[in-house]
Amino acid sequence: MLFARTKAIRNIVRMKKILNILIKHGFGDFIEQLNIGRVLSLKRLFRRKESPVYNRAVRARMAIEELGSTFIKFGQILSTRVDLLPPDWAGEFKKLQDEVPPFSYEEVVNVVEGGLKCSLNEVFDDFQKTACASASIAQVHYAKLKDGSAVAVKVQRPGIDKVISADLSILYTFAGLIEKYMPSMRRYEPLTVVSQFEQTITKELNFPTEGAHAGRIARIFKKNERVLIPKVYWKYTAKRVLTMERVYGTVIDELETLKAKGIDFKKVAEDSIKAFFIQVFDHGYFHADLHPGNLLISDEGKIIYLDFGIMGRIDDETRKYLARMLFSVVKRDFRQMAKVHLDMGLINPDTDLRAFEDELIEITEPIFGKPLNEINISELILKLLNTAIHFDMKLQPNLLLLQKSMIIMEGVGREFYPELNMWKVAQPFILGWMKKEISPQKKLEEGKAIVQDLVRVGTELPHQASDLIKRLNEGRLKIDFAHLNLEKLIETIEGNGRDFFAGFVLSAIILGSFYVIGSSKGPQFYDMSVVGLAGFVVAAAMVLKRLFRKQ
Prior knowledge:
Blueprint: H1 2-24, H2 28-33, H3 36-39, H4 56-67, H5 69-78, H6 87-93, H7 105-116, H8 120-123, E1 124-127, E2 133-134, E3 138-145, E4 150-156, H9 160-181, H10 190-205, H11 207-220, E5 227-228, E6 241-245, E7 250-251, H12 255-260, H13 265-283, E8 285-287, E9 295-297, E10 303-305, E11 311-313, H14 316-331, H15 334-343, H16 353-367, H17 377-390, H18 397-416, H19 422-438, H20 440-473, H21 486-517, E12 524-525, E13 528-529, H22 530-550
Helix pairs in contact: 1-4, 1-9, 4-5, 4-6, 9-10, 13-18, 13-19, 14-15, 14-19, 15-16, 16-17, 17-18, 20-21, 21-22
């Protein structure tokens, strides 16, 4: 009870500090709308005049920077939500920098030794006292293990979990008040936005999760000689300590240094974009924090990824949406582009497709007046998303995270090599995905999966029936019937039983035909087994017979 009361008092103190910062930057009107003064039993809130020097977007960014690490992270994630923020606000929030002074070496030692359950000297031959990088959640120190391996040790900032927990509580309070007192904002689901942020930042606080992300990306590029992912030393990793291989390279935006090293700019630019599309289209799992500081170039020209705290995931349906949309863009098939959004359930079924198509044409036609290598894919997707928002399109946060990552990658690639043709690099991945989706093999696999599910249900049914009879015999199952046309019910059940048995046999025939049709044995017809084709003919005859009988 005492702990809960202390925590509540601490949160109120933090809330008052946040309110003062918001008022200082001219957001007193926002606070008044939320009735926070009444919630906190404050006698009055001083409303300051808004400074004419800066607009509201700039002042919001300045306020967030002053609010500290949790809010900076939140603002960075909000910068990807083009469905929530106006373009000028999103642009300002992208400027948020997560750089804070490092904490002391004594605190570093305490965190590392506490996490690894041993002294620093037992693990490391050398541990640099000065951090090579420092951010709000953690800082990094270079070190050397007892076996001579050079490593980078990421150490979590002491007490940051408590700070984030308190700030999350306050963010939930804000979100709840917004939903209550600002009806126009309810459609943006502020509580859901905060919940999604909580999931992201909680994972970022758990360093073994980040190590697992690094391992998964490493497996994706295991056979790719152009991408290097640092190894995780699991023996020396804990919840607040992450030990990884130290990799050597130059930050990707240090162009003069890379030029002096003789790096092939065109190849590196294309390799970085290819690596991104491999993650997105081949695996649906991608590094979602690819700012220049997390991208290095080795002296051999390899792409090096760092910091795996934020990852994006897109399912098969979203990948299909992206491939079909970009494919439609290349073909300039605007009707198909509109239909893609409808098929994916991203716009309402009653949406005026003609109006949506006209909007798409107005956006894309001016873009196609440029040479292909000057067309910016990420900017095009952003405009398409903004258009869809006007039609109440439902946007997945991971799709927006992908769009943000694509903007960064395309921007870095074009700064690195201005003549970069994104469409040329992307085309094989888009066409490859489309070809895979419409290939006969894909349809066969889908058919096999459906039939296998039917067979599984059929094989499980006898066991379920046996269990039901056993429970009836033991008196553990009581069923009450009202005798209302029971004879008709029994006839229906018997009919359904016959239908199920016929369906089971039919499924077995189809499944067998799927496996036989590709066989090279026996007589063939257009490279297909005659026996397999015969199975499909028998199955079709059974279906037609039952259809005509029911009619």
